[in-house]
Design a protein that fits this description.
Length: 463
């Protein structure tokens, strides 16, 4: 009987070895791991983007003297037009030639040229610029041609350790593919855009890769490469991509208009710290505390209150303020989501209908003219939409400076973008029309008040 057991054991062992042998690679093709099929699928949809813009530079009468140029800011001298060219990458996202790239690649462009992998060249036009996400949507100009394009993956399902391939045109050498993994998700404090929530990868990304594709192993778009962490200018294995869910929202917005409509929070928020969690009786240091609410905001209308803590949105755990802003910003206006809110000692699930921030009053963008101290400043009215876009306090009021012309009165007098003018010569400034009216006065001495970084400043200028 013992001999029979031994024979059976030998037979089973041999069978196991034979079965394992069948699993071993039997050819070079099976031995080699290759992403060639994925790359062949993806590469036709990744293009080179060449942009040209004309920048006016002023040649100083002081030459290259740093002392005089520092104090006189090149305001004396002849203006010269200088043609600047930039190189980046882009991703085609539908068959008609709709193209995504980074805003900084095409900002201020007067001409854009797109080159495909088969070396065909096309002009392209900008149909939407969204500086807040550093994204721009272009349309390739063609005669009803059909283009290869990438499908979007759900970036919320991307996990650390997933395979990632980065495609783009680094240093202008031509399309290049690098591979790596997703090193981290939900990266914040990167300082690239208003929405601090990025996919981090160690796939090599270099200058010229901006606007290129970050794809998964199936060739689906999981992000748009936008920046690297580097002291030398080359790749150090830390690259950042804008998640595809955010990209998809901007793409869909481009089909409906020339700007992105995002859900409005209408709230002042604070990430939960350890001390706040203890004071509220929470057992986890995560979530977002609502400090203040606008009375017409969607959260207020849904009966969410100040001192509530948002702990989840549509069952996705909210760890901090940046993640909440991203989750809302990647949703479409008109959708309904449910917030899980910690109040007292219980969790409430509350449906919230997402709406866009009101544009009331209308912006009325105007450049102030004449001899007033703020002449040359572009100003606009403050509405909930402006408060949201420029991250202003909920109670912000007055007229905000949105742009300043170089060498203008406003520039020489030290005004900055973001300053809020609240009074001129003791006259309260509530709307752009009020500031225009006060600017028409021709006087030598000007008294005014403005808000900068939350502080009210009184100033007097001799004009």
């Amino acid at each position: 009987m013992r001999l029979l057991y031994i024979v059976l054991a030998v037979i089973l062992s041999v069978s196991s070895v034979l079965a394992e042998a069948k699993k071993l690679p039997t050819s070079n093709g099976e031995i080699q791991l290759s992403f060639s099929k994925t790359v062949k699928k993806v590469s036709p949809a990744v293009v080179n983007v060449f942009s040209t813009k004309i920048a006016e530079q002023r040649r100083s009468v002081f030459g290259n003297d740093p002392f005089f140029n520092r104090f006189f800011d090149n305001q004396f001298g002849a203006a010269q037009s200088n043609i600047q060219k930039s190189l980046g990458s882009g991703v085609i996202v539908n068959s008609t030639g709709l193209l995504v790239t980074n805003h900084h690649v095409v900002k201020g462009s007067t001409k854009i040229r797109v080159v495909l992998t088969d070396l065909r060249e096309f002009d392209a036009r900008i149909i939407l610029e969204d500086e807040r996400t550093d994204l721009a949507i272009l349309q390739i100009m063609s005669n009803n041609e059909t283009f290869s394009y990438l499908e979007f993956a759900d970036s919320d399902n991307v996990e650390v350790g997933d395979l990632a391939l980065a495609l783009g045109n680094p240093y202008g050498v031509g399309q290049t593919v690098t591979s790596g993994i997703v090193s981290a998700i939900a990266r914040t404090n990167v300082g690239i855009s208003d929405f601090q929530f990025f996919i981090q990868t160690d796939a090599a990304i270099n200058p010229g890769n901006s606007g290129g594709a970050l794809v998964d192993s199936l060739g689906r778009l999981i992000g748009i490469n936008t920046a690297i962490y580097s002291r030398s200018g080359g790749s150090n294995g830390i690259g950042f991509a804008i998640p595809s869910n955010m990209v998809k929202l901007v793409v869909n917005s481009s089909k409906q208009g020339d700007r992105v409509l995002r859900p409005w929070l209408g709230a002042e928020l604070q990430s939960i710290s350890h001390d706040i969690a203890l004071s509220l009786g929470m057992d986890k240091t995560q979530g977002v505390l609502i400090r203040k609410l606008s009375e017409d905001s969607p959260l207020y209308l849904a009966d969410i209150m100040p001192n509530d803590v948002i702990v989840a949105v549509d069952s996705k755990v909210v760890k901090n303020k940046e993640q909440l802003i991203y989750l809302l910003a990647s949703q479409a206006v008109g959708e309904t989501v449910y917030f899980s809110v910690y109040r007292g000692d219980r969790i409430l699930d509350i449906d919230v209908e997402l709406i866009a921030a009101p544009e009331t009053p209308a912006r009325h963008k105007t450049v102030i003219k004449g001899r007033a101290p703020f002449a040359g400043a572009e100003v606009m009215n403050i509405s909930p939409a402006v408060i949201e876009e420029m991250t202003l306090p909920l109670n912000a009021a007055g007229v905000i400076i949105s742009n300043i012309a170089r060498n203008s009165n406003a520039h020489r007098n030290g005004f900055r973008v973001g300053d809020i003018v609240i009074s001129v010569s003791d006259q309260k400034i509530e709307l752009v029309g009020d500031l225009i009216q006060e600017s028409r006065h021709n006087k030598r001495l000007w008294h005014f008040k403005y808000v900068r970084n939350g502080r009210i400043t009184s100033a007097t200028i001799y004009n």
